[in-house]
Structures are given as C-alpha cells and as structure tokens.
Design a protein that fits this description.
alpha/beta; Fumarate Reductase Iron-sulfur Protein, Chain B, domain 2; FAD/NAD(P)-binding domain; five-stranded parallel beta sheet; globular; binds flavin-adenine dinucleotide; binds iron/sulfur cluster
C-alpha cells in the first residue's frame, strides 16, 4: 500500500466520458485518454486490504491482482503494473472498456465510501502499455505438434486461443462472420469498444502464431466430422445468440426487429462504408421504442440517438431499481441499484427526460394499415409475491398507446444454436446450454470442449475470458499436458 492515507485524501473520480451531446455526433469511443496524474491519486485510494474482496468470488471473475497493480500505478511503475495485469487477463483493453466491474461492488472501501475506480485503472494500464509498445506478439518457445480447432471468435474463443498457443499447440479459430471478435465486433458498438481495439488484438494473436479463418460456418461450410478428423481437440465457443421474442399480436409487422439485427447491421455498415451503403436499419427521424434494458438495450438507445431518432422510450418489465443497496442486497454482493449508463445519459441530454419506463407489459404492436408498425399498446403492472414466488399483476385502466416507427426487442437471449452441437452429438442441459459436468469444460463427446456463453448462457466479457482460460487448461490436459 503506497499511500496509507490515500482513501482519506482523494475522492473517487472515474476517468470521464466525453461530453454526451458532443459524442452523439460521432461513433468514436466515449472514453477519454488516461491521465496518469489523476490515476496515480485513484490508485492511492486502494487500502490493500488483508482480504481483498475485489478478488473474491463476488469480485473479479478472473482474479485480477487488483491491489498489486493499484499500488504500482500509484508509484508510477506502469510497466510492472501491466505485467501483473497480463498474468490474469488476456484482454484488459476489452474488460477495461466494457466490464460492469463486479470488483468495484465488492471493494472493501465501498462499505462506507465510494469504491476504488478499479476499471478505469485497469483500462489505463493497458492503454499506457500499448502507447509505449510494451505489448508485442509472442511466439511460443516450442510447438507440441498438437492441433486445436476453436469454433467462434468471441472473447471465450480468443482467450482459449491465446492460452493454448502460449502452451505451444497449433490453434485455428473459425468464425462464420466476416470479422473476428464475436460480440466484441458485432454486438458492443464502436463507441463503447472501438473496432480498431479489437482488430489490434486479433493482429497480435495472429502474429503470435494463431490462424484465423473468417466466413466459415462450421457445420455447413466445414462439416463437424471433417473438423473432428483434422484436429486433436475442438472447442465450441459459439456464444448464446438465440434472441428472446415477444409473441404478441402484430409481431409480424415491418420495423419490429431484434436488437442484434439492428446493432450488427449498423456496425457492418459503419465499418464497410461509414454508413454510406445504407445497408442498415436507420432510426433517423423515427419514434423509437427499445423493449428491454441491460447492455443490449443501452447500445440500441445510443445507436438510435446517433442516427438522429425523433424520440426514444426504453421499456422495462421490472420495477425501477433503488438508488442505494436494499437490506437484502448487502456488500459484497453485486449492487442491484439504478445505473445510468452511457446511452441513458445521452438520451437524457438529448431529449431532456429519462427514457426508461418501468413495470410495463407490452400487449400489441399497432399496424399503420400498411403492414408497418405505428405504435405499441402497453399496460402497467405491479410485482407481488405469492407463495414465495414473484408474480406480475396487470393494473386495470392503465392501458396506453405509444407512438413508434421502429421497435427494437432487447429482451435477452435464450441460449446457443443447436445445429453444430447436434451434428457433433453433444448433450444440452436443462437450461438449453451445452452440457458439461460441474467445474469441467468437456462435453459429452470425447475431444470436444466448450466455453463462454454457449456453456453458461449469455453473460459478460470477463466471464467469457475466464471460461476460455479454463477450457484451455482442460484441453491442454487432454492433449497430454
Ligand atoms: C449487444 C450486446 C452488448 C453487450 N455488452 C456487454 C458489455 O458492455 N459488457 C460485458 O461484459 N458484456 C457485454 N455483453 C455480453 C458479452 O458480449 C458476451 O457475454 C460475450 O461476448 C460472450 O463471449 P463468447 O465468446 O462466449 O461468445 P460471442 O461473443 O457470442 O462469440 C461467439 C462467436 O461464435 C460464432 N459462431 C457461432 N456459431 C458458429 C459456427 N457454427 N461456425 C463459426 N462461427 C460460429 C459467432 O458468429 C460469434 O462470432 C453484451 C452482449 C450483447 C449482445
Ligand atoms: S475484469 Fe472487470 S471485474 Fe475484473 S478487475 Fe477488471 S473491471 Fe474489475
């Protein structure tokens, strides 16, 4: 612990985002560059607790050595901080930009003061590392002559590829999209995670000896049995991208889309043509309703605002979260509190009101007479506990019609696609995810492993990295250690 009184002297201050109104005029990252002096003071706030809960089960899933690098940043020893960070996290530039930071929810200082700004410090360490050229491709010292095929290039597949390559195995990553990155590329928008940041890491991995194959849909372009024959082990890291639908009257109308249709087409068009090819769903001048919150809903809001939408409403089935932790949600659990994310902030600045409307049930998409949506009918609900179970009760007389020219469904995901696992004869569990025994990454078929959202359900980037690292260890053991 560098400065014993740091947490008494300095208030918490995150690395600021760019001004909300200014940043909605472009698609560049919302983050501002790291300011070393500011981060030194923030690093000094870490108390180096005897039991660092930020690293516990409730904190960072990949066990980042947080107090150690906080201290090194306070002392200005950035290169050593990067070395410590790289021990546990393959891609701090991804988590530093996208992680909701469960570590901060479990920070001991957070019991009675605002937590240490761990995520900002993590992001700064890796950005300073890149700026100084400290992060370079690393070919393994030897090769094992064992080969591994990884299906899916999201954070789980990439983390596993990095770990297996370092162990000397020959790794090939297959991706059916035209670019590498999974949801890092075509889910999370450019303003939250620049695609140049994703490409920079892909290039490093390629230069370290990993082979990437895009536009290959394994199971169609390359059969499951072919890949089984050619490689010593297979990792399925295919994500959980089947969207949850809203099966109410009018669902077939035009201009009702899944969030991922909207976000993927937008990013592709942005990268291919800076949106000049018009191959995206344009929200310009439209009354937009986003149904569902979470990261996906926020990303839809932020994208629609940048297109120049006329109005924006974000509907939630759940109640508005409290401003402070409830008594049944104590430290160090993840705080279930109201968070105003970048998209909400931008919407408030642009339209002068918070876009979020809570406890609304959607009943009907309204037809404009030309098979296009023109509105949404809703009813307010309240949640009541019956026999220990939460149930939704509709409130009479609260029916409401909302204007809408574009409705985006961001209500989560139901699980992974089944085609490829079925071809491989791999079992699913009751949650419809690919089944593995507890604590294992091996599927029901020998030599086939799985990691990431297709194993644990739609989750977080940091969990996908953890899964990829775990699966890599299991595969290495299977291949002889
Ligand atoms: C819109 C959105 C925003 C999000 N924002 C955040 C955030 O801010 N912070 C956060 O922590 N998490 C966020 N998440 C969640 C996070 O992105 C995922 O948990 C994470 O990407 C899962 O990683 P993965 O590697 O398991 O799968 P994915 O990232 O889904 O990658 C799977 C890849 O496999 C490919 N694939 C599938 N089948 C095949 C096949 N047969 N052949 C070849 N390739 C195949 C897919 O094309 C895809 O590229 C967000 C998710 C979404 C949808
Ligand atoms: S990866 Fe996420 S949980 Fe871990 S230290 Fe970084 S911000 Fe915190």
């Amino acid at each position: 612990m560098g400065k014993t009184t740091g947490f008494l002297e300095y208030p918490r201050r995150k690395t600021p985002w760019r001004d909300p109104l200014e940043r909605t005029l472009d698609y560049y990252e919302i983050n501002t560059p790291p300011d070393k002096k500011h981060l030194k003071a923030q690093g000094a706030r870490c108390m180096d607790c005897g039991v660092p809960f930020c690293e516990s089960d409730h904190g960072c899933p990949i066990d980042n050595l947080i107090p150690e690098w906080n201290d090194l940043v306070y002392r200005g020893r950035w290169k050593e901080a990067l070395d410590r960070l790289s021990k546990t996290n393959n891609f701090p530039e991804f988590t530093g930009r996208t992680c909701p930071a469960p570590c901060e929810g479990a920070c001991v200082l957070g019991i009675n003061e605002p937590a240490v700004t761990i995520k900002s410090i993590e992001n700064a360490i890796v950005d300073v590392g890149f700026e100084n050229g400290w992060i370079q491709p690393q070919q393994p010292a030897f090769r094992t002559n064992k080969s591994v095929a990884i299906v899916g290039s999201g954070p789980a597949g990439l983390a596993a590829a990095d770990q297996l390559n370092k162990l000397g195995h020959q790794v090939s990553v297959f991706e059916r999209e035209d670019r590498i990155g999974g949801l890092l590329m075509y889910g999370i928008p450019n303003m939250k995670l620049s695609k140049s940041v994703v490409n920079r890491r892909t290039k490093l991995l390629e230069d370290s000896g990993i082979s990437f194959y895009t536009n290959v849909d394994v199971g169609n372009d390359l059969s499951a049995e072919e890949i089984m024959k050619k490689y010593d082990a297979i990792l399925l890291a295919t994500g959980a991208i089947l969207p949850r639908d809203l099966d109410i009257p009018g669902r077939e109308l035009n201009n009702v889309y899944f969030a991922m249709e909207f976000l993927t087409a937008h990013t592709k068009s942005l990268l291919n043509s800076t949106l000049t090819d018009n191959s995206y769903i344009n929200a310009k001048d439209k009354a937009v309703i986003v149904i569902g919150g979470g990261d996906t809903g926020t990303d839809c809001i932020a994208t629609a605002i940048r297109h120049g939408c006329k109005s924006l409403v974000n509907m939630e089935l759940l109640p508005k979260p409290p401003l402070e932790r409830d008594s049944n949600n104590p430290w160090p659990l993840w705080p279930n509190i109201l968070r105003t994310d970048y998209g909400h902030q931008e919407s408030i600045e642009r339209f002068g009101v918070d876009p979020r409307e809570y406890e609304l049930s959607s009943n009907l998409f309204v037809d404009d007479g030309d098979s296009k949506v023109s509105g949404l009918k809703t009813q307010s609900i309240k949640w009541i506990k019956k026999n220990g179970q939460w149930k939704m009760d509709c409130i009479k007389g609260t029916e409401k019609l909302w204007e809408a020219d574009l409705i985006l469904l961001a209500m989560g995901f139901t699980g992974p696609e089944k085609d490829l696992p079925d071809q491989l004869g791999v079992d699913f569990n009751q949650k419809e995810n690919i089944d593995t025994p507890l604590g294992s990454f091996a599927t029901s078929r020998s030599g086939v492993f799985t990691a990431g959202d297709c194993r644990r359900g739609q989750s977080l980037v940091v969990w996908a990295i953890k899964e990829g690292r775990g699966a890599a260890l299991a595969i290495d053991k299977y291949l002889g250690g």
